[in-house]
Amino acid sequence: MCLEVLNMTVYEVLTIAVIVAVGTGATIAIYLGLLNWIGGVFVVRCANCRHLTLASKRQPQRSCPHCRHPVLMHPVHAIHHPRQFADVRVRSDHLKY
Fold first, then answer.
1. Which of 70, 33, 32 lies closest to 48 in space, CA to CA?
2. Helix H or strand E segment including 21
3. pTM of the model
C-alpha cells in the first residue's frame, strides 16, 4: 500500500514538472516571437558556423555560443570525437536568411 502511494506521488510530481517545463518553454517562445515581431531581437545565422542564434540586428553574428563554447553546447559530440570536439559546424546547409 505504501509503495503504491509513493509511486503515485512520484508520477504526480513528474507530471507537474513536465507541465511547468512545457508552459515555461512556450511562454519564452511567445516572448521571443513578440520581440522578433517588434524588432527587439532577431533570429539570424552565425556567419562562422551557420547555427541559429539571437541578435539585436538583422545581420549575421561573427560568432555564437556554439562557436565560443562547442563542448558545452554539444557534449555528446565532444565525448564521441575527443580529438575534433571543436568541429561542430552545420554542413550542407542550403537555407538562406
1. 70
2. helix 2-38
3. 0.53
